[in-house]
Amino acid sequence: MSLSRLVVLGQLAESGPMHGHQLRRQADSMHVESWGGVSPGALYRELHQLEAEGLIELLRSEQVGRRPPRTVYRVSDSGLAALRALRDEALTVCVRPPDIVGVGLLFGALEDPGKALALLERRREATAEALDKLVAKRARLQERDAVSPAVLTVFRRSELFLRAELAWHEEYAAQLGTTALKSAGTGTPRARAQRVARPRRRSTSREDATTPAAVEGPRGSR
């Protein structure tokens, strides 16, 4: 699905007619690029595509002083229908993003476990710092009563995601540590993946050798 399309249609539907600069400024104020992956350039490109498809309509042209004229758009009836479809998809989809850390652990040729643990510690510290900043920002907005329930929900979702990342770091250090890294760093990538995913079992039956974890390999954790 197109998140940039959802952002443009949603802003026009909620805030009324706007030109491209206003759309970008509003998206920037919400930092949507950092947590939603929607770049300012994508918003401008989406405007032209939406107009071509009849999902938004040219309302008027505005010019302030010597600045270039700016085209003001409004969402059309078909655009509102498209927005509802995108919203329904966004709120029901369950897609896990690529696990960059998992790929690095399994295929990063971890010959030095200490180096890997040091790198992960840097990641843990950066994650903890990001969480502290996010919590502080939410608290400031709540004190000024400047956050809607929907925005608060998005803040909390980001916070819980970062807390889950920190919990994984703690679990990795406590339960896996150097032993798991040494095991994952030997043999072929396929063998490493199977060793991390499947704990040793006493039984050697065919059922044990074909469990979902053993067949599919690790899916990682973000």
What does this structure look like?
The protein is elongated. It folds into 2 domains: 3-92, Orthogonal Bundle (Arc Repressor Mutant, subunit A); 100-216, no CATH class. Strand 2 (56-62) and strand 3 form a beta hairpin. The chain has helices spanning 3-15, 20-29, 32-36, 40-52, 77-92, 100-107, 113-143, 149-184, 189-197, 206-209, 212-216; strands at residues 18-19, 56-62, 70-75. By secondary structure, the chain is mainly α. Helix 1 crosses helix 5 (77-92). It has a 3-stranded antiparallel beta sheet with strand order 1-3-2.
Main sheet characteristics = 3 strands, antiparallel
Counting structural domains, the number is: 2
**Could you say which overall geometry the principal axes of the C-alpha atoms support?**
elongated
Spatial separation of the terminal alpha carbons: 22 Å
| Individual helix count | 11
Number of strand elements: 3
Into which percent range does the helicity of residues fall? Answer: 55-70%
Mean pLDDT: 80
Main structural class? mainly alpha
Record the SSE blueprint.
Elements: H1 3-15, E1 18-19, H2 20-29, H3 32-36, H4 40-52, E2 56-62, E3 70-75, H5 77-92, H6 100-107, H7 113-143, H8 149-184, H9 189-197, H10 206-209, H11 212-216
